[in-house]
């Protein structure tokens, strides 16, 4: 049980490349912190720095009130679950879990109790004598989890632990990890590039980009009030529609858009209607494509009067294209002209460079 | 794609394989068959009469305490050479596996000795450790060692083992380095987090994961120590002093070419052939299984 505090943590490689450019995060006792961001944003590096597998070139990492910058991974009282599970291939499931306890000189009887308890929780009891190669991906993942929980460490670290599993298993394991963490009430830091995983698991969500923190907070707050256009387009699927406010129909419609250069509207905040929302946005769209998901339908429309171009950031919409979410399986047909309307209170306004939220 | 359609003529594929087959037949099977036939024959001292004696040459060998001594000696040599070169190569490979500046150069230099021919290795070590000429001998004497491999059989044996092991280190090093690099880094990291100190990490995780490589190299090294050390022995000690460094292969040479006992020599080489077949069999079975842990 411990807090984890990162104080202006930096990582500069000998070649001069700055992987982490000063990160401050405070994870409270028993909280589940998720680091999310696109590949190469430094989230895994940051986690490995907490684990002690990468050196810290600036700032401090504090686990349970103790600065661990110079402390070996073994002595930080952490456990880590790796993306490829990193099980010891020559050891049985039992020995994989017992290894960390034996290294710390625990009595065999106590080891047996702990391993069997963990195996029971993770439903691995019938497989204790098997070797990792005789297990399925999901079972290996659970052994990796078991290896972490038998140690009863202060902090769990997860490095994209579900990315090698198939979609269905990933959702099941995601729920299991969350339940397990709640029950053990162990402080956890979890790295993922999957925004859905991040949203569903996190108590605290840290959105990272280019070695920096874009936004920290409760997942719902981040979803509802993204601080930058990067966060706005990264969190949420399909992504938020981001449109530059140039001297066109948009600017004139929006009330109180002073200082704003970009407006963002989530696909679900549009309503297809002939009416207008006072102070809000109404877009005339030509339907280009329809995606039926079953419970909802995504309408891809192109804005008239707007030049179409290439997306600026990955995941961001190309200017001129707008996604509208319609509940249910009914929607307009391809080629149809529609009016998509969003009320004023659903608009997200950002500065022209996208680095700052203007209001509210 | 049909493989038959590549060749127009039916004879062409045979013609293409023929040179290789000819080499194998002329230089391997023919002498081997000769050795087998020879091992059943007994010649008089002047080569005037030859008689067919069935297994008498073999029976003579197994009754001969000198042959038995050569077997024991060869196994002792092989064991010593394999263990010392394997352990030293492993040590070097573990050190070279660390991210070091200029590690490529270091690795390349470590591979070089493999390119040196065994007789040259022998000559090199003879010069360094010759009782009256050797550079290293002076230091050994200065340290109070009565160093004279020309007279002392144990020292001569040590010298052979040293030279033979030294040459084999490069080869073993290469395989160990590849083996180490194939161990996932995250497994080592997991062990570090699991509280295993470097030494314990090595013995409980890295060493077991290297065991397939170790087994493969053990077989290779034994075969090497059995057969390829001929050049080293011949240049360094010629089997002496006495018979202190006479291995099975060297005994084939001395008994047959120097002693003129062709029947016995042939029988000895047939026995060696059987040993090679057995070792190769073990290795093939192992290669098919691939994983031992």
| Relative strand content of chain B | under 5%
**What characteristic shape of chain B results from the CA principal axes?**
globular
Q: What is the correct CATH architecture of chain B?
A: Orthogonal Bundle
CATH superfamily of the largest domain in chain A: P-loop containing nucleotide triphosphate hydrolases
Mean pLDDT across every amino acid position of chain B: 82
Weakly predicted, low-confidence segments of chain A: 306-312
What is the CA–CA distance across the termini of chain A? 37 Å
Q: What percent of the residues of chain B sit in helical stretches (DSSP H or I)? A: over 70%
**Based on DSSP secondary structure assignment, what is the total number of beta strands of chain B?**
2
What percentage of residues of chain A falls in helices of 4 or more residues? Answer: 25-40%
> For the record, what CATH class of the largest domain in chain A applies?
Alpha Beta
Radius of gyration of chain A over all CA atoms, rounded: 24 Å
The total of beta strands of chain A comes to 19
Give the neighbour order of strands across the main sheet of chain B.
Answer: 1-2
Largest sheet of chain B: 2 strands, antiparallel
CATH architecture of the largest domain in chain A: 3-Layer(aba) Sandwich
Query: What structural class results from the helix and strand content of chain A?
Result: alpha+beta
Order of helices and strands of chain A: EEEHEEEHHHEHEHEEHHEHEEEEEEEE
Distance between the termini of chain B: 39 Å
Q: What's the domain count of chain A?
A: 2
**Integer average pLDDT of chain A:** 86
Give structural attributes.
heterodimer, A: 360 residues, alpha+beta, Rossmann fold, OB fold (Dihydrolipoamide Acetyltransferase, E2P), six-stranded mixed sheet, five-stranded antiparallel sheet, 30% strand, B: 293 residues, mainly alpha, MetI-like fold, two-stranded antiparallel ribbon, 73% helix, globular
